[in-house]
Amino acid sequence: MELLDKISRVLNEIFVWIAGAFLVVMILLTCANIFLRLAWMPVKGTFELMGFFSAIVTAFALGYTQIKRGHIGIDILVNRFSAKAQRILNGANYFICMIFFAIAGLQIAKWATTLKQTGEVTETLGIISYPFTYGVALGCLTLTLVLLVDLLKVLVEGKRA
Predict the structure, then answer these.
(1) How far, in Å, CA of 39 to CA of 36, rounded?
(2) Which of 73, 102, 105, 159 is most deeply buried (CB count within 10 A of its CB)?
């Protein structure tokens, strides 16, 4: 399990750096578009690029955010339960979320394959969209890996992961 946890952490750290790079590009693109719009020459395809880049930023940050426990959780009621009940609920939550994101990742990858086969491109810039869709699927699947590690920590070590 230690190896799986280490693989998950390294993979998600790489992904969060990639997400950060895309975020920087989004900021630069927004600034360039604002300044060039003053000269009546906005950046062509900004809307398309921002959509693709924000999808990558969000998807690639999912697993890292789970590792850092950055997702919003409201546990007012659960905190009143015994430690054993909390572990059971956390384990059930990790399992359900893991199944959900595994299915979501596989379905998104299936959709990306369809986009690839049909040769789908964007309207303004003619960018192929399936690599970004595969990126979102990959982000969902890495979150699935993090949730699996969390579930194993609850089951094997009895920890609240």
Answers:
(1) 5
(2) 105
What gap in Å lies between CA 120 and CA 85, rounded to an integer?
A: 49
Q: How far is CA 58 from the centre of its chain?
A: 5
What does residue 128 show for φ and ψ, rounded to 5 degrees?
A: -70, 135
Say if CB 159 and CB 153 are below 8 A apart. Answer: yes
Task: Find residue 160's DSSP bridge partners.
Answer: none
pLDDT tens for residues 26-42?
Answer: 999 999 999 998 888 88
DSSP 137-155: HHHHHHHHHHHHHHHHIII
* Separation CA 149–CA 96 (nearest Å): 14
Show the CA angle centred on residue 103, arms to residues 99 and 105, nearest 5°. Answer: 115
pTM score of the predicted model: 0.90
